Amino acid sequence: MQLITQIGSWFFCIIFPIILILSPSYETVVNGTRIAVILALSQIIVYLVKRIVNRPRPYRALNNVIANRLPVCVYSFPSGHTCAAFCLALVLANGYPHYQALFLAVAGLVGISRIYLGVHYPTDVLVGFMVAYGSFTLEHMFSVSSLFI
């Protein structure tokens, strides 16, 4: 589970769009740029909501009874890893529809791993998905490419 959860990590979410943007394929560059924009928007929202809500992580609230925890920041709500994983998955599923189920399933596993590792409640994961979907929708509504479709 610790490997799966890394798909939503900041390192992966910075490196992956850069690799796509450096691709010789125009479509891949567009998808990489979309991922970068959506990730930036969603992670700003996640950061602000975490600071406003100040929800403690499950292992803190349950007095360290959860043994699978990872070293993470103090606040739990919403899940930034889940949000990031779904940002990636939604853009990739939109760009490569034949692999849609795979991309969304992997993002779902990231959310499940966050609960399993004791660093998020199910509602944190659900709202992380909602922020990703909202960011994806906003980017799609206001992107230049969607104006010509």
TrEMBL record:
<feature type="transmembrane region" description="Helical">
    <location>
        <begin position="126"/>
        <end position="148"/>
    </location>
</feature>
<keyword id="KW-1003">Cell membrane</keyword>
<feature type="domain" description="Phosphatidic acid phosphatase type 2/haloperoxidase">
    <location>
        <begin position="33"/>
        <end position="140"/>
    </location>
</feature>
<feature type="transmembrane region" description="Helical">
    <location>
        <begin position="32"/>
        <end position="49"/>
    </location>
</feature>
<feature type="transmembrane region" description="Helical">
    <location>
        <begin position="70"/>
        <end position="93"/>
    </location>
</feature>
<feature type="transmembrane region" description="Helical">
    <location>
        <begin position="7"/>
        <end position="26"/>
    </location>
</feature>
<feature type="transmembrane region" description="Helical">
    <location>
        <begin position="99"/>
        <end position="119"/>
    </location>
</feature>
<dbReference type="GO" id="GO:0005886">
    <property type="term" value="C:plasma membrane"/>
</dbReference>
<keyword id="KW-0472">Membrane</keyword>
<protein>
    <submittedName>
        <fullName>Membrane-associated phospholipid phosphatase</fullName>
    </submittedName>
</protein>
<dbReference type="GO" id="GO:0016787">
    <property type="term" value="F:hydrolase activity"/>
</dbReference>
<keyword id="KW-0378">Hydrolase</keyword>
<keyword id="KW-1133">Transmembrane helix</keyword>
<keyword id="KW-0812">Transmembrane</keyword>
<dbReference type="InterPro" id="IPR036938">
    <property type="entry name" value="PAP2/HPO_sf"/>
</dbReference>
<dbReference type="Pfam" id="PF01569">
    <property type="entry name" value="PAP2"/>
</dbReference>
<dbReference type="InterPro" id="IPR000326">
    <property type="entry name" value="PAP2/HPO"/>
</dbReference>
